[in-house]
Amino acid sequence: MARIPVLGRLYSREYLAVIVGFLLLGFETLLRCAIFFLPEPVIQWFHDRTISIFKAVVGLGGARSPDVDGDEAIRAQSIRVAVDFEELCGIYGYDWEEHIVQTNDGYLLTLHRIPRARGEERSPDSPRKPVVYIHHGLMMSSDVFLCTTTAERSVALRLADAGYDVWLGNNRGNKYSRKHISLAPHEPAFWNFGIDEYALYD
Predict the structure, then answer these.
(1) Using one digit for the tens of pLDDT, what is the confidence trace for 51-64?
(2) What pTM was estimated for this model as a whole?
(3) Residues 6 or more apart from 102 whose CB is under 8 A from it?
(4) In degrees, to the nearest 5, what angle opens at C-alpha 14 toward C-alphas 13 and 20?
(5) Which residues pair with 97 in a beta bridge?
(6) Which residue has the higher pLDDT, 79 or 197?
C-alpha cells in the first residue's frame, strides 16, 4: 500500500510519540504558568519537602558533614572563581610548575606538574621521585583533578603527598593548549588533528 506523502514519513508509534511529546510540553507550560503566580513561601515549602524526600530516599537522613557549611563551602566557592591551575593549587597550598612541549605537527601543549607534597621543602639533593602522568577526559583540562573540596579527594594531590612527581597533561584545543607554531585557533586547519598528538620532540 502506498504511503501518504509527508504524513507517511512516520509510523503510527512515532506519531504517538510526537503527540505525547507535545502534550507533555503543554503540561509543562501550564505548570510554569501556575508556578509563576505562586507566592514565594509556597515554593520554598515545596522545595524543602523535596529535599527532605530526596535525603530520605538516598539514606542521608538529614545528616550533613560538619565541614560542608564551613571549610568545604569556602573551598567550593574558591574553586568556582579560580581561573587557572595556579589558583587551584594555591587553594590547597601546593607548589606547581608549567611546561610547554611541542608535538611533531607543531602544537604547543601545556603540561602541569606538582613536584612535591604540601609543605615539602625544595632541595637539589633530594632523590628523584617516580613519575606519574595523569590525563583528563574529553572536553576537560588538568583543572579537573583539583576541583574537589578536600585535598584527600584529589588523586593528583594524594599522589604528590605519597611521594610521586605528578604531571598532568592537556589536550590540544583546551584553554591551556591553544597554540601552534603556524596556525591560529580560528583557522579550521588548527582543528584537523593528526594521529601523532602525543609524539613530542626530544
Answers:
(1) 888 888 876 554 45
(2) 0.61
(3) 108, 109, 181, 200, 201
(4) 90
(5) 113
(6) 79
